[in-house]
Amino acid sequence: MNEINAIIERGHAARRLSDPSRRRVFDSLPAFLQHGLFCHDRFINVKKQAFAQRMMVAELLKGEGNRVLSTLNVDLALRYYEQALSIFRYISNRKGNYLQDGIHDDDLDNVIFVSMIESENVKVKALCLSLYLHLAGCYLRKNDIKNTIAACDEALHIDPNNYKALYRRAKARISIDNPRLEHYLLSHEDLKKAASINPSDQVTQQEIVKVKKRLDELATAQLLNASIRSSESSFSSKPLVQDFKGPSRGIEDTRKKEMEASQEEFLDKLRNKSMDPFNYELSYEVNPNARIAPEVEELGR
Description:
Elements: H1 2-17, H2 24-28, H3 31-37, H4 41-46, H5 51-69, H6 74-85, E1 89-93, H7 98-101, E2 108-113, H8 118-141, H9 145-158, H10 163-173, H11 181-197, H12 202-236, H13 249-272, E3 282-285, H14 294-300
Parallel strand pairs: 2-3
Antiparallel strand pairs: 1-2
């Protein structure tokens, strides 16, 4: 895998030398898709093979990832999982050689394997779901928040009720530096859904309590700041001398309800906002009759 690390570094060097204005979409993609472009030549050949051979190679790579992860080598496990995913989901360069010509959005395709045989599609989805979860777990260990959330998003596209993806995304949302109210709102939403799927999991329940406590603290602070700004504005527009009747409980309750409604409206906007940066048109490939490459036979031994 040192060779693959070298290939990925070479790919990133080519990216840095490319015109930034022509690779904005590529730069927005998560690492597990970018590194699919930077894959080893042997895996490019594997992608031309029949489904059974491709699945065998992907499973072998995933197994190696699991093995090295058990030794706590997270970086090496990531490389194996990324390469396994790239057998069925990857970015390809349709023109020229990106190492020489640079990486340009207009030259790239977002490729996903789709078969005419439904049972094969089911197997690929199951494999990709497993790989996204493994990737998310590794990225989270490295505190790589962007890629953790992207991997969880992809997993949830396949299985919207996946407990692990929801929990890991919830953890990632509040693992950034100085998380704000909206991060805790989204984290709390993910945790609530995860708890509804697996109500017996005590870790999730404990995490909900912690997140809800911090969420309430931030909401209270926001409410207080809004009240202070409102009071200052009101005071500046009134005479300096006036009757003081003390705080009105009714006004405080109204402001609290308004703030809660505002938070819910804000959360709805976050829920509905498209977070998917993968805005290439998908291309589809089926090649069930291709010959078995020597690289595949070698990996199978």
